[in-house]
Amino acid sequence: MTKGKLKMRNFLFRACFLALLNGAILAEEAVPNESKKNKDAQETKDLKTSEESKQKDLAKQNNLVSLPKEVISATRLSLNLFEQPYAIFRHDREKLNNNVGRTVLERMDYGPGVIMQHTAPGQTSPYIRGLTGRQSLLLFNGVRLSHATMRSGPNQYAGLIPDMSIESIDVILGSSGVVSGSDGLTGALDLRLATPGRGVDKPASIFLNTRVDSANGVQTATGIDGKVGNWRYSIEGSMDEYHDRVGSKDAEENIFGENKNAYDGIPNTAYNQWAIAGRLAYDGFSNRTIELALGHTYQDDARRPDGYFENSGVANRISRYYDPETFSYLHLRDDWAPEDLFIDRLTTTIWWHQQDEIQVREDLTSSDTVYRRRENDDLTKSIGLESQATSNIGSHTLTYGALILLEGTDNEYREYRNLTGVTPSGATEYKPEGWNKSTTITDGAKYNTYALYAQDLWKINDKWSLLTGLRYTYVNWDFDVADNNVDDLTGSLRVSWNFRDDMITFLGASKSFRAPNLTDLDGASDRASSGTITFGNPDLKPEVGYTFEAGWRYNKERNLLAATIFYTTLDDVIQTVYEPGSTTGKSGNGESAYLRGFELEWDYGLPVPFGNRFALVGSISYVDSEAEVPQADGSILKEPISRANRVYGIVGIRYEINSNWWAKAQLRFHDSYDEGDIAKGDETDVRLTVPGNSDGSVPGFGIFDIVAGWTNNEGRWLTLTLENLGNTNYRQLGSGSDAPGFNVVLAGGIRF
After folding, report:
1. Please, are residues 166 and 548 in contact by the beta-carbon 8 Å criterion?
2. What is the pLDDT of residue 436?
3. Quick one: CA torsion of 416, 417, 423, 425, rounded to 10 degrees?
4. What is the C-alpha to C-alpha distance for residues 226 and 205, in angstroms, rounded to an integer?
5. Beta strands 446-459 and 464-479: pairing type?
6. Residue pLDDT, tens place only, 542-561
7. Which residues of 134-151 are buried (b: 16+ CB within 10 A; e: fewer)?
8. Between 47-61 and 34-42, two packed helices, what is the crossing angle to 10 degrees?
9. What is the helix (H) or strand (E) element at residue 60, kind and residue range?
10. How far apart are the first and last CA of the chain?
């Protein structure tokens, strides 16, 4: 990019931000006194209507109209969150605007049961109760974002859903496999799109959001929402431009090379991302709404710092990056409430997703005397159709449906080598034996999923409810070396006891499964860049998991307390297995594993002599695990699941001066990652050993932040964050670079 373009872009960012700030100041002067009365009245409402009243209040603050009650797609229940017999947590738009973190996923980090790993700044992979990658389910507005080529470890796919389009993120801990299918062995994340028009009740309402982050860069999003007759619409676009991250005062300890002291930031942490999206809804039919959502995200020069010598200290690593990486989607949904039929509600969704990435790696090989460049061009397409019906029969609510999901790949691999030197100059195309098998997945592979499911919510009486469900799933695949299929029957039994109006407890037992995907069945993978290659196996059967959990929730007015304990056992785990006398492994259904732990969450107000509310806020999560891992010598090693053993959370206080102004002080923390918590394969992974010790252990950390904000009833808000006040050097476990040092963030939004 030319200097002229950079100057123009920076000028536009500054102009947008100044316009936002000026609008916020003007809006403050015009805040009506009625806003405080409305919020005070809301705090006295009954517990079961508190969530709905909060949504209506948020809608009013944005000059919106109230929308019909939303079905929680990830559980298929229309109950409010308090009544759900799950450990379920919602990060709404208010939280996602005001929490600490650069991206929308980072701003839900350290929440109950979920922590984020950032192998690269452009990647954010959720760990859900200790599992990530293809063992944790990602949903996008209720349909599958996880696809047939998800890797076993952390990945970047959730990070390609733009902040501007998300209304909330639901975390469903445990198994919802009956209604959401394969992969969610310990839980699922559902990134929910904002409704078309966002409830605006006029032809056009323009919005502008921005986040200026001194340690990372700038995000800007703008768009227009509106309602014209029976049509509702949203059109929006965003641009994120991140410079090299500014680390703490000690960040240079984890930078290598002769020029380590010359860097102004942490090298190889800059990238750009832009996105466009639109949503359209038609309400002109009787008892029916049709919605269309589409979008495209483009990520440019997204580097993985652990693939560079400057970040890893590994001398033969030259570069590793994605350029470009894109995600495109189209969702069409018909929501119908027929009259005088057995079916009370019928929702049919058709979707198309395309994930396309070009990954480039440059390194030295053959005793560091040969330059090598590898290029993987991988494309995965998904086409899905799901129809779900709901029937109310007396005290029973039946939910049942069918799914068809067709996925395919398009893969290319290119390799270049300079056989006479260590520089790119002179490198030519290189075709080793087995060239066609060097693609990540066999080109043209097919992977199809078919499912039928049903669940019954029986309201036994005013206090007791019973939720039961079954799902049958059939998966087949076809590629050039094999075709095969698997099927599985999953079930769930959950009982809830609403023993007081403000308290509920639940018990749950459920079976989940993960059908082997294309990365298990085909190709070759190198775990954690270790050099140990594992080859696919087309004859695998599913992994299965059994989760037992108990939970309790208290919710009165705005006070919230929640606690969950769980135990999950995994069988037929897809692992690297070895033939006798061989050191080259292949994927196989190996041994077993378990995970156990708890989650706590609280937001509890204390009496204060002045101001609106003073509350203790936070959450703590604990995961302990053990896996049986086959070894090349035929033995079985018992060790923790990689990066699963964790104690982490947030503790803080929040003070609301009035209905418009608030402030929060918090401590984000993670316990140390000691030698006994380390999987053997992690002991040589530079993402742990660089910030920690040679055995892979990593010190714990505690990061102190202060956040203050202002909002009004017209969709205008402003937040000031002082992140990492101690300028502490730390790293999310397994991430490719250190986290930001002291960081000043000014964020806000304005609506016209």
Report:
1. no
2. 59
3. -60
4. 6
5. antiparallel
6. 999 999 999 999 999 999 99
7. bbbbbbbbbbbbbbbbbb
8. 160
9. helix 47-61
10. 33
